[in-house]
Design a protein that fits this description.
Layout: H1 3-7, E1 16-20, E2 24-25, H2 37-50, E3 56-63, E4 66-73, H3 75-83, E5 88-94, H4 96-108, H5 115-128, H6 134-141, H7 145-155, H8 159-167, H9 172-178, H10 186-196, H11 237-263
Parallel strand pairs: 2-4, 3-5
Antiparallel strand pairs: 1-5, 3-4
Length: 264
């Protein structure tokens, strides 16, 4: 059997049977890590009215006279069916040889996966297919090799980078293009990730000797406020530091005033 046949088996040839929902358990290898409770509740409401249209895919476990089933694909349907209080559920049984590949490929077709879930699923699928090349893997999932490469880059990245992508999924493309995934120095990675978030580290410095703070004065206007900062071009480093310290001083004084007004 070829890798493509394993990845895209004809499941319609497998009969649909009804099994007790209590005999089904989730897979510990479930590639999907995050589930939207609201969407599962919506699916449960739909199941109450229309039933389960697409059977879930399971592996059969036999222990003596007892049969149990492990979910290969259809975790959302299973959770929704539990909420809908179904006693039985339609399933198709697959062999262990196909199970993991089906599970991964089915999840990769979903549009609502988080980038880190796609990355980890692609990495696992690559392993299941015997270390398939980017091109071969891309052909299997009908994506470009550059698509596969971006996600596998994150899958192989240090844990702090993966945690960042998990928390800030909207920055996935910037992370994959920034080079941070290949940076071996943890401190440098921290700086690079902070920049992607728009954070700029400001050293906690005091004013250089002989450079007193610029007095901060407020000028009230009718509508809103105006901020006007003027300085010449090509400031020296010490002058820039002075400017930063003074701006921080202004913010501190404004915060004190806010806190003072709040306590009155």
């Amino acid at each position: 059997m070829s890798d493509r046949e394993l990845l895209q088996p004809n499941l319609t040839t497998q009969p649909v049977i009804m099994v007790p929902i209590a005999s089904i358990t989730s897979s510990v290898d479930q590639p999907r890590q995050m589930f939207d409770d609201d969407s599962i509740l919506e699916l449960a409401i739909d199941i109450v009215g229309n039933g389960i249209i697409n059977p879930i895919i399971v592996l059969e476990r036999i222990d003596g006279n007892d049969k149990s089933y492990v979910i290969v694909a259809g975790e959302r349907r299973y959770r929704a069916a539990n909420i809908a209080n179904l006693l039985t559920i339609p399933v198709r049984i697959v062999t262990n040889e196909k199970a993991r590949i089906i599970q991964l490929s089915e999840n990769l077709q979903r549009e609502d996966l988080a980038p880190i879930e796609i990355a980890e699923a692609l990495k696992a699928l690559k392993s299941e297919l015997g270390g398939a090349t980017h091109e071969k893997l891309a052909d299997h999932i009908q994506k470009s090799s550059s698509y596969v490469g971006r996600y596998l880059l994150i899958a192989d990245a240090p844990e702090d980078v993966k945690a960042f992508v998990k928390e800030h999924s909207h920055l996935f493309t910037k992370v994959s293009e920034s080079g941070v995934a290949k940076e071996s120095d943890e401190k440098k990675r921290k700086v690079m990730l902070d920049k992607l978030l728009g954070k700029v580290a400001v050293p906690n410095r005091t004013l250089p000797p002989g450079r007193p703070p610029i007095p901060f004065t407020q000028k009230h206007v009718k509508n809103g406020f105006n901020i006007n900062i003027q300085y010449r071009e090509n400031l020296k480093k010490a002058e820039k530091e002075t400017l930063v310290v003074n701006l921080k001083k202004i913010i501190e004084e404004l915060e004190k005033e806010i806190n003072s007004n709040s306590s009155n």
